[in-house]
Give the backbone structure.
Amino acid sequence: MGFGTKTDYINGRKLDLNKSYRLLIKPVVESKGLECVRADEITHSGSIDVQMYRELLQADLVIADLSTLNANAVYELGVRHALRPYTTLVISEDKLMYPFDLNHILIHGYQHLGDAIDYEEVERFREVLGNVIQQVLDKKEPDSPVYTYLNSLIPPKLQAEIEKAVEKSDRTSPPPEVGKALSLIIQEAEDAIDTKEFSKAKHLFQSALLLSGQKDVYIIHRLAFTTYKAAEPNLVASLYESLKLLESINLAHTNDPETVSSAGAVKKKLYECGEGANHLEDSILYYQRSYYLLNNRYNGINLALTLVYHATSSLVDKDQERIADLVFARRTWQRILVLCERDWELISEKEENDQELINNGTKEGQELQEYYNAQKYWILVNRAEAYFGLGDFDSYDQSIQESLTIKFHPWQLESFTEQIGKLDAELKKVGHLLEPKWESPV
């Protein structure tokens, strides 16, 4: 399966696959007395591909999660089907649109909400998966279409040549963080982000990228983020370095919203650093692409700000063009208010469904409550920013007061305050062009 947050390019949905693994798969497998290992948890000091193929051949059971139609997962499922006639089962989140060639494979579906999984769904699917695993282990019937249709095949056995390849790779290509599983390096990096140790996180993600074969999009996203946050040797240089990383994953043509929104953020900061108006134009295009793909608040908020930037930039010299930018920004803020209402209803319903888990005093319940607090805080301050841009300052104040009733991290307030400061400074320059006139409350 994939790990981290992956994008389904067909429908634009982003799924946190770590939650699928941690909540749905690992506890069920371990309850059957089996050791559960995901690819990024394999400890190795040589080629990960050699280790991967050996695991696919020797594992007593393989579960393939095809959510987001992850290319690596689909390929590795094919390898397993070629190597072993049985003890392979396939799962996926239920909105996956898989190709025709997979129609003849039994795929067990679960409901993924994107960044969370409902507690009732966790309980339901754990029971389903547990029953399926037991059936697969007990019956030992062919589940590989290769061995089903070519029923005279004899499964292969591990040959000495592969063992030699492992020994050779151990001697010749030790990557950074030797002997440490990829998943542990990534977790250390994420922990470093939580404590604002961006330089440390950048170094760890660089090691993770080497271990992953220089190709994992999730790791490149995180490395790009920590690169510009570390600001080494300075902010401008780090932004260009971050942009180069994003360009390495087909930035010009990708439909991955995370890639283009990250590029929008980098380009916006380059403009704010005085690196040229061309970066602002690119930022608007990137935020538009991600906003229209996902229809979400984050990209909408930043798109509206860049449009206000455009109205005050050297790119326009007529009030008519400035007004056009401001009208587009206002329409975006109005849409954000609708999205805030939608998201508030969804997150409140999910939180209510998960109250039993939240109240049971476990670490998992505590993490879930922190997640809901963060989501509600961002909804409220996004709504506040939209009201601010629209000049409805009474509603802005009300949203701010509501946000203060929710437990949040200081950096969240700092980020919001900085954004409002930028918006206020720019609207003061052109707010008089609107009807009614926009006037700063400060």
